[in-house]
Every structure is written in structure tokens, then in C-alpha cells.
Amino acid sequence: MNGMEHKRQEPGIGREEQVRETREEDHEHHEHHEGHEGHEDHENHEGEEHGERM
Amino acid sequence: MIRVAAVGDIHLAPGAEGTLRPAFETLGDHADLLLLAGDLTRHGTPQEAAVVAGEVAGLPVPVVAVLGNHDHHADRPQEVTAVLAAAGVTVLEGQAVVLDLDGTTVGVAGAKGFGGGYAGRCGSDFGEPEMKAFMRHSRTCADGLRRALGDLAQAGTGLRIALTHYSPVPDTLAGEPPEIHPFLGSYLLAEAIDEVGADLAVHGHAHLGTEHGITAGGVRVRNVAMPVIDRAYAVYHLTPRPRPEEPPP
Ligand SMILES: [Fe+2]
Ligand SMILES: [Fe+2]
């Protein structure tokens, strides 16, 4: 679950073409999954137990 | 030691109820506060904000947020803010909040921030009115952050955290196409952070970016966009240090 394949670019930013693609994807996705965009590919909804020491 | 949990770009909307709540309910075991780095909704409607409110209401730790560009899309940021505030979330825009966490004062300065780009590759206040307005908004956001950080310096909080949606540095954009960097953040935010100083700077917005970065002045920057951290929240452990230039509180 680490590669780029499950990441989505911030919608609304990019070349106009990309924006249009994103919108179409959003639209399709919307129809099929009832509006759950943004992190729908992220099944990891756990928090972090061991923090980063700074 | 203070444990700071943070996440941005959760982009919630009706249908996503309950997706983050189970993880957030464990926050009391892992963190002392939760920062939300903007893009909490998809399109910035009060209905979407209500879903966010449902995920964070009554959590065992204080919740501090800034809004993102998506939370502005419906032109109803005040309503979004009100819905979140009613759920106990402190929403900051050019403001700071001081939390007393087990005897340590933790200050969070928050501002959405804006684009404009980074050294050598940035917009400037020149030309068409639209371009000037773009850069003016970027400067206004950075000025708000600077002012809020200044308030915290004055208050002498044990820790100082800068919370934005847009990125203060290009480091945490690694993975994003360089062509869109000017839409992902602004060096003006880093200037504000370095001018006053901070223990940590947290942002979101760059979904394809990288978690770790640092400002020219040495302030650690973390991109906590959910697609980047790939979990419900990241946790950073900060140890308050006395600052020589500031009198002890
Ligand atoms: Fe986002
Ligand atoms: Fe964003």
C-alpha cells in the first residue's frame, strides 16, 4: 500500500487537462461510491502509536 | 514531552461518517492534541463540515484546525468554521491559541496560507490586477501567520507550532510535478516562520508530496496530508526548550 498508485493529486490543481480528468474521475467515482473521494484509496485509518521524536 | 497528532486533507463528505472516528478516539493514548491541516471537506459545504464535526466532536484531546482551499470552494468558510467550532474545534486564520497541556503551554499559530511559489520560482506583485490580488492574498495569509506566531513569542509559550494548509517549503512537495509548486505553497510562509521561530511547522495540501522538510532557518516541517502519511494521523514528540532570547514564562 505504499506506491504512488493509491495516491491522488490534490483536485483542482494541475494542467487544465489534468483538472478535467480529475473532475471526470470524481464524477464517476461519485456515482459508484456515493461521494467518498480524497482518501477512498486509503484503507489505513489507524493512527500512529509510536510518534516521531523531534 | 508533548505529543502532537496531525492530519490534513481528510476531504470528508456525507457517506464518510465514522471512517476516522475510531482512530481519533484512541488519540488520548498517543497524543496531547490534534492538529487538522485543512481540506477537511470536499467542497466546503456546511453539510460536509457536519461530517467532519461528527468525527472530532468530544475527542479526549483538544482539536485545532485551519481551513484549506477545498473548505473555501462553496464560498461559505464562515459557516464551515461555525460548524466545526460548535463541535469544539478551534479554527484559526491569522490567529493563535495557547493550550495548557499538563503544565506545558503549547501555542499553535494558524493560517490557511496560499500559493505563490518559492525562491527563484515565484510570483510577484506585478502586472495585472488578478496577479497582484493573487500575491496580495498570499502575503496577507503569511502576515497573519507571522502576527499569530509573534503573539505566541510574546506570551512565551513552552512550544510554538505553525499550522498551515499550504506548504512553507518546497522540500515537502517532492513527488509533486514541479510545474504546480507555485499553487502548493509560498516562501512567504517560511519567512514568517523563520522570522519568529517555531518548534514545528505542519501543513497539508500536497497530496503527492513527502512528509519531511525543513525551513532555511532550521524549523522542521511536516506534510501531514492524509495521502502522504497514509494513516489517520501522524504523531510528533516535542520537548519544550527554554529560548535564550525569551524570558522564562
Ligand atoms: Fe487536499
Ligand atoms: Fe488543498
UniProtKB/TrEMBL annotation, chain B:
InterPro entries: Calcineurin-like_PHP (IPR004843), Metallo-depent_PP-like (IPR029052), Metallophosphoesterase_sf (IPR051158), UCP008292 (IPR016538). Residues 2-207 form the Calcineurin-like phosphoesterase domain. It holds the Pfam family Metallophos. One of its GO terms (biological process) is lipid A biosynthetic process. It comes from the Bacteria. Keywords: Hydrolase, Metal-binding. GO terms for molecular function: metal ion binding; UDP-2,3-diacylglucosamine hydrolase activity. GO terms for cellular component: membrane. This is Metallophosphoesterase. The keyword Coiled coil does not apply. PANTHER family: PHOSPHODIESTERASE YAEI, TRANSMEMBRANE PROTEIN WITH METALLOPHOSPHOESTERASE DOMAIN-RELATED. The keyword Metal-binding applies.
